[in-house]
Amino acid sequence: MKKITIFVTALCLILALNAGTAYAAALQSQKQPSLSMQVMGKTLKDVDPPILQGGKVYVPLRAAGEALGYKVTYNASTKVMDLKNGGKSIRITIGSLSTVVNDKKIKIEKAPFLSNGRAYVPIAYIKTAFGVEAKYESSKNIVTIGTVQAPAQPPASDKSKGIYILGKKMDPEFAPIIKDNKVMIPLRPIGEGLGYDVVWNIKTQTMSLRKDGQAMAFVINQDKAVVNSKEVGMDAKTIMVNGRAYVPLTFIEKQMDYEIAYDKASNKLEVNAKKAPAVIAKVQDIKFDENGGFPQLDIIADNPVEYKTFTMENPDRMVIDIMNAIADTEFETKSIDKEEIIRVRIGQFSSNPYITRIVVDLKDQKKAKIVQTSDKKSVSLVYANIIQPVTIAKEGFSDVVTIKGSKAIDSLITKLEDPERIVIDVQGAVLEGTEQNLEAGSSVVKTVRTGQYEVGTARIVVDVNKSAFYDVKSEDNVTKIYISDMPYSFMGYDKYYNSSFVYLNPGEESQYNASFDEESRILKVEIKKDIEFDKDAFEINDNLLEYIKLSKETRGGNIFTQAEFRLKDKVEYELISPETTKLVKFKLKYVPKTAQDILVVIDPGHGGKDPGAKGIDGVTYEKNLNLEVAKRLEKKLNDLGFKTVMTRVDDTYTTLQQRTDLANQSYGDFFMSIHFNAFVSKTQGIETLYYPNSTNEGYAINNKDMAGIFQQELIKTLGRPSRGTVPRPNLFVLNKTKMPAILAELGFITNKEELAQIKKDAYKDKAANALAASIVRYYKEIQKIDLELDIASIYSGNITAPQSSESSEQNTAKN
């Protein structure tokens, strides 16, 4: 999921547009009368106009269809145009009088024809196909396409009378009747409409209903029924009318758990499922959080909530009303005094209905945004990058998606399959407006969709066809994603944390061969073509490659372009393309064999001026506990042979950016962040946080499965309640690290019982054991790499250091 794309540009492809065709079309259009077209009151611009031929008007079908909301496709080989809008469809064939409208064959007065590459039909066909009026006003030289003719409506009385079961109208022959001032309803359609098995016994004149263990029986001319083996009285007898059994409405109201409404004036009966009573949520805590890399104030409830908000001035403040909720925090006022947030106050604004009011005092309310988590249990006030509605346009041979924010765009870009799409997660960001769904209508890009994926993560999804490539250009607060069906340079280098895909683009079908020298670790790829490049050497020096060199060689009258790749130790390669191809593609991957080949980055959360959470005892701080567990874990991993690096080794303040930079620049193989939790005093238990992802060819790890291993080991070892694995896409140390990453919350220091356990050395040691064991299990079960390490020895404390040529000092790096 976590991917960085590096493009090594050796050759820029420039496509020249053929202006001759466009110029000829322009000359042709000048010979026709200049007509305009108006659809549903809107004048169409930048479309081919209607034309006059032999005194008759013909309309461009694509332009008319798209203006009416239809999706239009044209197959040039079959000359068939399809127009679709929901369940409506139109198909025409150039040169054929036969058309199909909503699956019915319709003959057209004159066959559709092409002019300037556009399909034209007679103006009269517009009404036939779309059901809208179309007329030509010669005095104004305009074609107007008007409003849809509304279908004739049945009389109001026909619409309303009758029986409606769960929103579905029963057969008109069934209707309530009035007998002796009692409303009587037909039993069979009611029962069957609600899913009961209905049986009529003609001998006993009994109708029985059964469903999910519930049983009812009614006998004609009896004023009693049997409900679940008990006799129950009715205020009228069951009667037979026109061969149908009728029972009193009052009995059904009492015995069936449904909402029943009867309107005497229209003789209309409605039976619907009862609405669930509103859940009264508890607002349990309000806390400041900047772990996402931006200020946010989280209002946390125990159930999904709805909210309303408004702002006030002099002084600036944001008012947030949580509907159907009661205030259940351990405070009424909390001082924040961080970033733009001064303090927060909470109270019960109303008890009928229940409304909890939160007032947040702010330095600047204009930049504040309110967003909600996907589970609807938290409402957050954030100061994040505000993303304007995205746009898509054509620039040269590329489709370009433009993202503009109030700050510089910080994004993670991933290409996913099934279906093919490019996902852009803008970090520390919120959408300015509503979600978008843009139709691109190009051969490469299908649609562009936007949404608030999570608090602080705005997601843009570009649905593409196969073999789409992209390039990213950013300037100031604008990022542009260029998308095409070919790479943007002769060479592409798509880098993941421990693998990469290398592309060589010869520009046309070409032969290539590859060879690898084990001793020198040089992979040589040779393409049988003379390819121009501006630079012949590239220093890469990451965890996969040292360098790339380009050269040419002439043999037998042929020119070969050669690319030489110096692979680092433990790096393997895989050729993906066939021997003859338009695009040479191969994969590089770092494959560790032993623990000595693996670097674990250990991150003790908080530190220095950032104490983290404060314990319920008033003297315990999270930062100190994090460091104690981290040091224990470091020793255990070193004893097992792993290489480690710590983001801090003492009580030093380290920014989130410094932590992730250290991990990424060290090319860590795994990132382990250690924390303790805080909430209301009764909350306890263990959580494992992870970055939610979709697997792809460059990152095949399911982070949720990985988190599950850690949660299992921690619960088993520490004996605390499990609060499960928690997806946290907006956590900085999870979404900015390029390697697999886990954040473990090892217990609540705001819970008296749990804190007493946490403070014990034995608890900290067990926590370190569980984390070490989880890392070993992760490599065996997820990465399928058996490091031949005994997990039992981790817990027993009898770890035998593996044989290695490296000293123990070489296994540890300090920040």
What does this structure look like?
- The protein has 815 residues and is α+β, with helices and mostly antiparallel strands.
- Helices cover 16% and strands 44% of the residues.
- It contains 13 helices and 65 strands.
- The strands form 14 sheets. A seven-stranded mixed beta sheet has the order 63-62-64-61-59-60-65, with helices on one face. The protein has a six-stranded antiparallel beta sheet with strand order 53-54-55-52-51-57, with no helix packed on it. It has a five-stranded antiparallel beta sheet with strand order 1-49-50-58-56, with no helix packed on it.
- A hairpin with a 2-residue loop joins strand 34 (341-351) and strand 35.
- Helix 7 crosses helix 12 and helix 9 packs antiparallel against helix 12.
- The radius of gyration is 35 Å and the shape is globular.
- The two termini are 27 Å apart.
- Mean pLDDT is 87; it is low at 1-32, 148-159 and 805-810.
